């Protein structure tokens, strides 16, 4: 019997299967050609460089400074150059004021000022503050006169922060990460007048060496 209405007639079995297969193939082809390309994976970020640290071996003990080149690149480069040159070896903390700061890096124990390189441009507007333990550059009335001398705040000194009293303030470029007890010991030493200088420790507090450390 050749009844075209039967469900097992070739027109209802083979042909629909062929048509279905063709449709599936077309769908697969469409998926292959229209699927978005896989997005490229972002390159892995390079690990941030570890901050530079400097160890000051002093006659009162060890102080370790962590420098902020991300905030004060010129100042840090200047300071590191002096460290690498051995400039600070044998200098003293020549100006010590309790409840304010300790300043050093410019004079020998005989109160002879060492010759320096050219000054570094102020980077005081960098967001860092003169809080207890902060390390900042000393300077004259000229904001761009900092050379080698630095100071460590022994209390919070917001009056030194940018813009301070002169539109600039003092450039903070690091912080004490080890030896704040040594800083406190230094700030409490007896001081007096020596020639034209005031607040000079009666017994010199010597920076024996200054070295980059890991």
Description of the structure:
This protein is an alpha+beta fold and 214 residues long. It folds into 2 domains: 7-34; 53-213, Cyclophilin, CATH 2.40.100. Helices cover 19% and strands 28% of the residues. The protein has 3 helices and 10 strands; from the N terminus they run H-E-E-H-E-E-E-E-E-H-E-E-E. It has helices at residues 14-34, 73-84, 180-187, and strands at 53-58, 61-67, 91-97, 101-108, 134-137, 150-153, 172-178, 191-194, 197-201, 206-213. It has an 8-stranded antiparallel barrel with strand order 1-2-7-5-6-4-3-10. The chain is globular, with a radius of gyration of 35 Å. The model is unreliable at 1-17 and 27-39 (pLDDT under 50).
